[in-house]
Amino acid sequence: MKWRKVASGSFTNIKYETKECGGEFLHVVTQSGSLDKEDRVPVYEKTLALTKSGNYFCILDNRKGKESLLSMADMSNFGDMLVSHGINRFIYAVVTKDPGYDKIIKLIKAISITKDLEVEAISSPDFATAEKFVLLRMDECVKEN
């Protein structure tokens, strides 16, 4: 895949880098401290403004094992943000050693059904595994275009 760097930025405890390939955008978000909804909103706003297709590809890198605070209402609000920006497919991988994050993935998938939002998501302790998961799906979308 041939990449073009589109943007990068940072906020309190979080930074992002966005790359484009074949009209699809990959957002790699790195967590450097504890995060709650308010910490995540600016990153979603910036990356959603960059995304030009109905697909949102994201890797959340939390290899440092920082606390991630998300309520069901927060997850629902993020789903609403995605849908209101024309996103109909959310491909998400979280790099974490926390086995409990699988429960968050299940909640994200359940909430997405109520939003008519297609979600494919995993958590993995290995960045390469998470990246492979997202890039395979991204490559499929690029080939569809």
Give keywords.
145 residues; alpha/beta; Transcription Regulator spoIIAA; 6-stranded mixed β-sheet; globular
Structure description:
The protein is of the alpha/beta class and 145 residues long. It has one domain (4-144): Transcription Regulator spoIIAA (2-Layer Sandwich), CATH 3.30.750. It has helices spanning 37-50, 72-84, 101-115, 127-144, and strands spanning 4-11, 14-21, 24-31, 55-61, 89-95, 118-124. The chain has a six-stranded mixed sheet, with helices on both faces. Helix 1 links the parallel strand 3 (24-31) and strand 4. The longest helix is centred in the C-terminal third of the chain and has 18 residues, at 127-144. It is globular, with a radius of gyration of 14 Å. The two termini are 14 Å apart. The mean pLDDT is 95.
Q: Give the tally of structural domains.
A: 1
The value of Rg in angstroms is: 14 Å
The run of helices and strands is EEEHEHEHEH
Helix content: 40-55%
Any idea what the shape is? globular
CATH class: Alpha Beta
Mean pLDDT score: 95
Which CATH-level-2 architecture? 2-Layer Sandwich
The biggest beta sheet is recorded as:
6 strands, mixed
Structural class: alpha/beta
- Overall strand count: 6
Distance separating the two termini: 14 Å
Please give the order of strands in the largest beta sheet.
1-2-3-4-5-6
Please report which band the strand proportion falls in: under 5%, 5-15%, 15-25%, 25-35%, 35-45% or over 45%.
Answer: 25-35%
Low-confidence stretches: none
CATH topology term: Transcription Regulator spoIIAA
